[in-house]
Amino acid sequence: MAHPIERLRWVARAEGAGPGVLAREAAVALASGGGDGAGMVTGCRRLVDRHTIAGPIWWLAAKVLVANDPSAEAWAAAAQLEADPTSQVLAAQLADDVTVTVIGWPEQASEALRRRGDVEVLVVECNGDGRALARRLDAAGVEAFDVPEAGLGAAVRESGLVLLEASALGPDGFLAQSGSLAAAAVARSLGIDVWVVAGVGRVLPARLWQALVERLADTDDAWALPDEVVPLEWATSVVGPQGVEPAADAWKRADCPVAPELLRFAG
Question: What's the half-sphere exposure (Cβ side, CA atoms, 13 Å) at 166?
């Protein structure tokens, strides 16, 4: 078994894994590392620095940094992430035989679509993920179509629902796969519902959300970021562990504290 420090370094370097998977691995690594306060601060800062766009990483770091027992808090966070029912909730809420547009390979939405099996999915290509997800869904018996990036608008127009997955969500916006801003804008203009999937750890309190957005604004190559900020008002609803809720109310379920160490580091 890898040493906790090595595991933490692996998580910090990891590319391609979804926010939930990254946060679960990070939680186990932090929990296994013991109660070294300075080490926890360093580890959490390193994680946030490397995975700025992953809301669950900020959520985990904030919970661990203010906890009286950081290791126990990390284990509890890992359990919460593992038990997140958002995919099951979404699967249960989807209308029968609806045509859904998604972008790339959304971690939680894709699992919900696989569970349902009776919906038609238009998967818009993004960095090769869309094509791969379309194949995976097709192999699972789901009617899925790979749509090139240029066909995003046409796919939205043919849909009954646009599903966007938030890697982080705050009071006035959410961070989602590149292309989500355009998809939400088209859907809004056509009167098509936009649901944002935001499971455990993805809804942040206002100050942490602002710190995240400020970090993105300081990025030298903003065009190359895999995710982009979308106005929350462009979403119809948000799907989370407790069900479907109005978009304007979703950020109120933020359940992590504001860790000053992250604000100082983010600023």
Answer: 35
CA distance 228 to 232: 12
CATH numbers and ranges of domains, the chain: 4-83 (1.20.120), 96-253 (3.40.50.10470)
Q: Per residue in 209-224, pLDDT tens?
A: 999 999 888 876 666 7
> Which residues are CB-neighbours of 15 under 8 A, at least 6 positions away?
none
Flag whether the pTM goes above 0.85: yes
Confidence grade of residue 140 (pLDDT, cut at 50, 70, 90): very high
Q: How far is the C-alpha of 105 from the C-alpha of 110, rounded, in Å?
A: 7
Are residues 177 and 104 in contact, defined by beta-carbon separation less than 8 angstroms? yes
The pLDDT assigned to 4 comes to 46
- Coil, helix or strand at residue 243: strand
Q: Determine the pLDDT at residue 127.
A: 78
Three-point CA angle 45, 175, 243, nearest 5°: 105
Task: Give 149-210 as a DSSP string.
Answer: GGGHHHHHHT-SEEEEEEEEE-SSEEEEETTHHHHHHHHHHHT-EEEEE--TT-B--HHHHH
| Strand duo 120-124 + 99-103: pairing | parallel
Q: Distance (Å, rounded) from C-alpha 191 to C-alpha 205?
A: 29
